[in-house]
Amino acid sequence: MTSSNLSKFILFVIAGAALLLGLIFWNHSHGKDDRVYVEVKPIQTGNGWGYNILTDGKIYIHQEYIPAVVGRHAFKTKEDALKVGRKVISKLSARQMPTISIDELREMGIMIDSIADR
Questions:
Q1: What is the pLDDT of residues 53-72, one digit of tens each?
Q2: Where do the structural domains in the chain lie, given as residue ranges?
Q3: What is the pTM of this model?
């Protein structure tokens, strides 16, 4: 291999490496963001309050009634619905099942014992 051919070969390898690095950098900086925006929105129902869990603006969970309670009982207040919705988001973020128990409702101060009085 002559020195002229060797110089062209080295230049070709350097240009190829620079192109490859440029493509990797561009792909990394313009790649899809893997994060998902999750939020809870209260919804007013005919009997009280519920909530929607939205992921990137689309309904992921629609909850009109208090979870874990037998029957169809809406939350008494918007704040109660939001508390439970935030708990569900917390569980989703921790990669847990987004279920809510009676004990968790009590811990959040949601008065489920008075539901029979409605």
A1: 999 999 999 999 999 999 99
A2: 1-31, 38-117
A3: 0.68
How does pLDDT run across 3-34, given as a tens digit for each residue?
A: 777 777 776 667 666 666 676 766 666 666 67
SS3 of 49, please? strand
The DSSP secondary-structure symbol of 117 reads G
- Within 10 A of 117 (CB to CB), how many other CB atoms are there? 6
d(CA 34, CA 36): 7
Angle at 53 between CA 47 and CA 59, to 5 degrees: 95
**Separation of alpha carbons 113 and 4, rounded Å:** 89
Task: Report in angstroms the alpha-carbon separations of 2 from 9, 10, 59, 82, 103.
Answer: 10, 12, 67, 76, 82
